[in-house]
Amino acid sequence: MKVFIQVPCLNEEETLPLVLESMPKEIPGVDEIEILIIDDGSSDRTVEVAKSYGVKHFVHHNRNMGLARSFRDGVDYALMHGADIIVNTDGDNQYPQDRIPDLVAPIIAGEADIVIGDRQTHSIAHFSWFKKRLQALGSWVVNQAAGTELPDAASGFRAYSKASLLRLNIVTQFSYCMETIIQAGNKRLKIASVEVDTNPKTRESRLFSSMGQHVVKSAQAILRSYLMFKPFVFFAWIAAVMFVGAMIPFVRYLVLITAFREDAGQHIQSLLVGVALLVGALLAFALGVLSDLLRTNRVLLEENLEHAKALRYGEPARPLVGEAPQFAPSPIPVSDGTPQHATV
């Protein structure tokens, strides 16, 4: 059993030593622990600091590509080098690295496919009252879209089994956190949560420049991910609302000309509004049918992609929770102990 701990970094030379010094040296049930530094366009000594601590695995971005791309490239590198479990943490030392064994334990025991560290955001001192409420609201929205009950959907302190990563496909450019939960929930992967205490704040977030930007980008990622799996539900609700709206002017028109005997010609505007809303409802319903057909096609493409990944990375050491192995194994490249790099 090999665990890769990947650390996305953007100019983290000051905080990276705190992260690397607190990494676990051994984990029950794990034979090998490898640390992977994802250098997302750093201009400081992040890479040199990592090498001084004996890190041998690196992914380099020539410019800043963002958290989602860093996660995706890190996963690709780790799976290519035989990872059975991939843990994601941060280079700013926000998360307690000594809790990584607790994070991977449910996966090793076969009790979960993905484990998320619950930061207990309601108790974080440097979070404002407003930010705590936004975190709770964001988690609730994600849980509604994914059919899960996770207390901290935005936490980036996570562990993924190899089998689960073969099923997930990151397409967002902002943050993978929300998207992977919605995908995993709709693909019936087992997600567990482990309570953790965060370390003291070391710097401001570099993922977004303001709370408003964070809310907007998170909402876009959630909506896009939801539409990938339940497009018909989304458009059906729009069609239903517009249909009800169309009935109101029609009923008003009928009441006025039958009950009150008013001149029908004076209320043509009610019919025009009703017809416009009815046409909108029919168009929304048609879009729902078409988008659902596209969803079916995407599911078939993802199944082919899943098989392609299995052939590329080899059969998972552990299948998904409740499933039997489905893929034939293929050779897995093994590190010879020398520093290895990938550049994007």
Q: What is the count of DSSP helices, taking H or I runs of 4+ residues? A: 10
**Total strand segments:** 8
Q: Would you tell me the overall average pLDDT?
A: 85
What's the quaternary structure here? single chain
Measured between the Cα atoms of the first and last residue, the distance is: 28 Å
Report the β-strand fraction as a percent range. Answer: 5-15%
Helix content: 40-55%
| Rg calc | 25 Å
Folded structure, characterized:
This protein has about 350 residues and is an alpha/beta fold. It has helices at about 15-20, 45-50, 65-80, 100-110, 130-145, 160-165, 175-185, 210-230, 230-260, 270-315; strands spanning about 1-10, 30-40, 55-60, 85-90, 115-120, 160, 190-195, 340-344. Strands 7-5-6-4-1-2-3-8 form an 8-stranded mixed beta sheet, sandwiched between helices. Strand 2, helix 2 and strand 3 form a beta-alpha-beta unit. Helix 9 (about 230-260) packs antiparallel against helix 10 (about 270-315). The model is unreliable at about 325-335 (pLDDT under 50).
Summarize the topology.
Layout: E1 2-9, H1 16-21, E2 32-40, H2 46-52, E3 57-61, H3 67-80, E4 85-88, H4 100-108, E5 114-118, H5 129-146, E6 158-161, H6 162-167, H7 176-186, E7 191-195, H8 211-229, H9 231-258, H10 268-313, E8 340-343
Parallel strand pairs: 1-2, 1-4, 2-3, 3-8, 5-7
Antiparallel strand pairs: 4-6, 5-6
